[in-house]
Design brief:
Lambda Exonuclease, Chain A, two-stranded antiparallel sheet
């Protein structure tokens, strides 16, 4: 299957190719519980995640920097966040503030000045993967734009302690897959940057180099999980339910009572 901007997110493309977001749906991250049942339901078109205000703010900024066509498509798909005059409603105005802050910084914009939304494919651990790069400066750097809650705020992870937002949300995995895919297509192993802007009252910005040791560790995690994901996605084994995500809560069926200790089993 030849990928294009029009079919990149199609069900057919998602079944034929693995992507970083799909991988994280199956395996999870420190910040998101993986759920095989939810991942398969998304692939089959039976479940869609709710569009929150925070998600739409980030998606608007992403679309803006992807280019006019992407922005117009976003507007047509999300008319509810705009007034009749075509302006953002009050609760989404933060997106404009973030855009203005990003555009005011020369270095940030330099890192985002590469070719936009570059599609590449590669075979990694025996299956085809697809990526779409926010900014590709050929032979120089791969940059991904992230609009986040906070850049500096640490997240607590049991047994690990405080963790940065990059590893908490699995963006190191994204960097590893993107770097390897570009290497297979060009022969060049490029650095991976995250150009981050926060949704805080005063927008913070940073360009973060995700170093090689973190990318190698993330790739080992992909290798650890990928065989199980291949089995589930191909239908050879039944997907497991996590029991705690929105999809599982919405679709669970009670068959017997549980005991008091079952309520704390996952703690």
């Amino acid at each position: 299957m030849i990928l294009t901007p029009e079919n990149y997110y199609s069900p057919e493309a998602n079944f034929e190719y693995m992507s970083v977001s799909q991988f994280k749906d199956f395996s999870g991250t420190y910040g998101q519980v993986g759920c095989e049942a939810r991942a398969m339901a998304k692939l089959r078109g039976e479940y869609q995640e709710e569009k929150t205000t925070a998600l739409l703010v980030g998606s608007y900024v992403d679309s803006y920097f992807e280019g006019p066509e992407s922005l117009e498509r976003f507007k047509s798909e999300n008319p509810e966040i705009f007034t009749q005059k075509g302006e953002l409603r009050a609760e989404y105005k933060k997106a404009d503030t973030i855009i203005q802050r990003i555009e005011s910084d020369e270095y940030f914009m330099q890192c985002m000045s590469g070719e936009k939304q570059v599609i590449m494919t590669a075979e990694i651990f025996g299956i085809p993967w697809k990526i779409k790069i926010d900014s590709y400066l050929k032979d120089i750097v791969i940059t991904d734009l992230k609009i986040v809650e906070s850049i500096k705020k640490m997240k607590w992870v049991r047994d690990l302690g405080y963790l940065d937002f990059i590893r908490f949300w699995g963006y190191d995995t994204q960097g590893a897959i993107y770097q390897e895919t570009v290497r297979q297509n060009t022969g060049k192993r490029l650095p991976f940057y995250i150009a981050a802007a926060s949704k805080e009252p005063t927008t913070d910005i940073e360009v973060i180099h995700v170093q090689e040791n973190f990318l190698r560790e993330a790739m080992h995690t992909v290798q650890y999980h990928i065989d199980r994901i291949k089995q589930v996605k191909s239908g050879k084994v039944e997907p497991e339910r996590c029991g705690v995500c929105d999809y599982c809560l919405r679709t669970k069926k009670l068959r017997h009572p549980i005991g008091i200790l079952d309520l704390t089993a996952g703690i």
